[in-house]
């Protein structure tokens, strides 16, 4: 395994900083924040955690960003909004979950995989607020994969977005 890849600059133009992330609409509340601040999952036995990385021998692309997260680490909401779904990351495997949050402010939805959710559908969350704990990927994958959470963003039309283009330019180091 290699060391985590440092975060790159965001393409989003933040409107203003808050202690936990970025306030896009200048209402004093955080709209976007990093779910985990330990860096991007680098190249390991299962490939790269980068957005757009090759999967299945090049037949598909990685639609999210993998962020290093030790088992049990606190995971934060990447956007403010409403928890719209909590579900299984893989059918028939209830031990690995995802949380989906939809934001009326940004009109984005975000899904964070491999997080044991502490929030139920319908709950309001603020970006940067703890939504659960990182789960153990060792149950599904043999040794060689860096434990992480997988973060996906989509716009209101459902188009997949590069999380590095959406999230603040640099992660806050509030959690480990």
UniProtKB/TrEMBL annotation:
<dbReference type="InterPro" id="IPR016047">
    <property type="entry name" value="M23ase_b-sheet_dom"/>
</dbReference>
<keyword id="KW-0614">Plasmid</keyword>
<dbReference type="InterPro" id="IPR011055">
    <property type="entry name" value="Dup_hybrid_motif"/>
</dbReference>
<comment type="similarity">
    <text>Belongs to the LECT2/MIM-1 family.</text>
</comment>
<feature type="domain" description="M23ase beta-sheet core">
    <location>
        <begin position="61"/>
        <end position="160"/>
    </location>
</feature>
<dbReference type="GO" id="GO:0046872">
    <property type="term" value="F:metal ion binding"/>
</dbReference>
<keyword id="KW-0732">Signal</keyword>
<protein>
    <submittedName>
        <fullName>Putative peptidase</fullName>
    </submittedName>
</protein>
<dbReference type="Pfam" id="PF01551">
    <property type="entry name" value="Peptidase_M23"/>
</dbReference>
<keyword id="KW-1015">Disulfide bond</keyword>
<keyword id="KW-0479">Metal-binding</keyword>
<dbReference type="InterPro" id="IPR008663">
    <property type="entry name" value="LECT2"/>
</dbReference>
<keyword id="KW-0862">Zinc</keyword>
<feature type="region of interest" description="Disordered">
    <location>
        <begin position="1"/>
        <end position="61"/>
    </location>
</feature>
